[in-house]
Amino acid sequence: MTIKVFLKDKSELSFPCDVLVLPVLEAEGVKAYRDIDKAMKGLPGSVIASGEITGKHKEVCLLHREGRITPRRILLVGLGKRSELSREKVRQAGGTALSALRNGRAGDIALSSRLFPALKISPADFLEGLLLGSYRFEKYRKENDRKRIRRITILSSQKISREVKRAEAATRAAWLARDLVNTPSNEMTPSALAAAARSLKNVTVRVINRKEAEKLGMGAYLSVAKGSTEPPKFIVITYKKTKGAPVVLIGKSITFDSGGISLKPSEGMEKMKYDMAGGAAVLGVMQALSELGLPLHIVAVLPATENLPGGSASKPGDVVKTIEGKSIEIISTDAEGRMALADAIGYAKRFKPSAIIDIATLTGACSIALGNEAVAMMGNDAALMKKLERASEETGEKVWTMPLFDEYGEYIKSDIADLKNSGGRSGSLVTAGYFLKECAGRVPWVHLDIAGAAWTDKDRPYAPKGGTGIGTRLLLSFLMNRDLPRA
Ligand code: BES
Ligand code: MN
Ligand code: ZN
Question: Which of 159, 186, 208 is the last residue of a domain?
């Protein structure tokens, strides 16, 4: 799975590689590549002049060696119009280039970065697209993709090794998240998630088991675990490289959500292995932090369990108590995510955090509202949400803010308990958020519902079918910006 990345200040013309990638701008021909065009007897220029490729975003065209150049082949990749360029478009172009090359015996590729300085975009973004796009989940296949890319060399004279390191760590984090999500629930159990946490370096891990969780009074979280014989694991990971209050990241980690007694329809139920995508993203972030050694204090909380029906499962109408003593009436055992998150938020407060961010595949209504394109954001702190919006713009992981009007509180009022866990179908994306807001209280808190964006049924420019790893790069960027001096 590993692709080695190199940064070299060398000329494209004489660089030995299988494929040299040349990003091109729409309607600008080979202006930036006159020397290469000349050495290739005008081939790139004539291909563009013929209209075979015009430089439109995500167009690709492969050329074979011609004239006096060392690279075996040249891949022209469209970036679109100069005036419409963005980091995300560059990333997508990188992903598209990768797709064009992945079946083409191109083990060793080089990227020309001479276009990028003037565009004020780092070649590291193109690299990120290449790397993210190269992901495949092949654990269960006999025939693996043997023609995969092994080396990528960025040809650049700029000092961009930090950006390259960051892009590599971010993509490795997203790969980890995708692997965890794509692995089915018979293997990706709460215990397996705990093992994945324990394999991280430079962190301390505490795993709270069922007995200890009972002692701590995590009645809401445990109500989800009751129907399963698979041991629940409440996973706490601490990364501490600075003093001061931590940011707590909470990832919903239901390793399989059958709905419990409020059983889901069987059609499509196999996808509910991805109900731990929030936890997977958080684990990915922790891996990247430890790899980059960032000066931060971050605590990750993954309340992991299955949600199954069984003789001892929770039933609609049951009332349970959270770690903070709030009583919750279970209306639907399928609204299990917020039960686990209620105790995770309550537990997180013990760290006196400066902020709590939860990330969760929380509601079907999230994908009804936003499709698979965006993350729904809700929270009680405008400044915190602004920072996440900024990270969203940087990473291309789209977030969209939803309201938490006080009126939604009425939807989740119980007749017999402090709260009920479902307010019914109407407004279920925001009433789920409101439920968590009640748990967060005064602590600055943001909720990210990734139910739509965490999974894709079609290949995307830099994400193949399956788990997308959404949220990983978003949260990482958010944390990295935090570590910068305040502007
Ligand atoms: N894990 C699901 C939400 C989900 C649905 C994620 C589809 C991804 C794709 C969650 O636990 C759930 O079942 N939510 C219910 C809540 C309802 C019972 C209030 C929902 O959205 O239907
Ligand atoms: Mn559910
Ligand atoms: Zn769920």
Answer: 159
Q: Which ligand 1 atom sits nearest the alpha carbon of residue 252?
A: 1
Q: What is the pLDDT of residues 56-98, one digit of tens each?
A: 999 999 999 999 999 999 999 999 999 999 999 999 999 999 9
For residues 220-232, one letter each, b for 16 or more C-beta atoms within 10 angstroms of the residue's C-beta and e for the rest, the string is: bbbbbbbbbebbb
Torsion of CA 160, 163, 166, 172, to 10 degrees: -80
* Closest atom of ligand 1 to CA, residue 361: 6
Predicted TM-score (pTM) of this structure: 0.97
Active site residue 162: no
C-alpha 79/C-alpha 312 separation (Å) is 57
Task: Give residue 484's pLDDT.
Answer: 52
Among 256, 334, 411, say which to mutate for ligand 1: greatest number of ligand atoms within 8 Å of CB: 334
The residue range of the domain holding 257 is 170-481
Q: What's the 259 CA to ligand 2 centre distance in angstroms?
A: 5
| 268-to-84, 179, 258, 263, 370 alpha-carbon distances in Å | 39, 20, 11, 13, 19
264 given a catalytic annotation: yes
Alpha helices in 6-77 (DSSP H): 34-39, 43-49
Residue 10 domain-assigned?
Answer: yes
Task: Give how many domains the chain has, as a whole number.
Answer: 2
pLDDT (0 to 100) of residue 485: 47
Domain co-membership, 189 together with 62: no
pLDDT in tens, 161-176: 999 999 999 999 999 9
